[in-house]
Amino acid sequence: MCLGAPGQIVRFIDEKVVECDFWGMTREVQLDRLEGELAVGDYILEHEGSAVRRIDDALIADTLALYEIILTEAGEDPIATEARCAMV
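and the corresponding structure tokens:
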């Protein structure tokens, strides 16, 4: 199963790469699939190193709550596992 992860933009590295925070772990995310303006503090949905969409401000709290449920019920942290695999 593929699972995109919500992350918050913490800084722009350049116009097509940002650093995002994923539950305290930061990693670089490519923006080449997205159109429109993004700013530090915005949330994106990341999959395989690329942002696939911006999360609407009105949906951030619900989205993060849903992911907390998924992570709790999984018994392990699939996002951290994916991130560790990507760094190898």
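(Above: one complete record from the training split.) Residues 70 and 76 are 10 Å apart (CA to CA).
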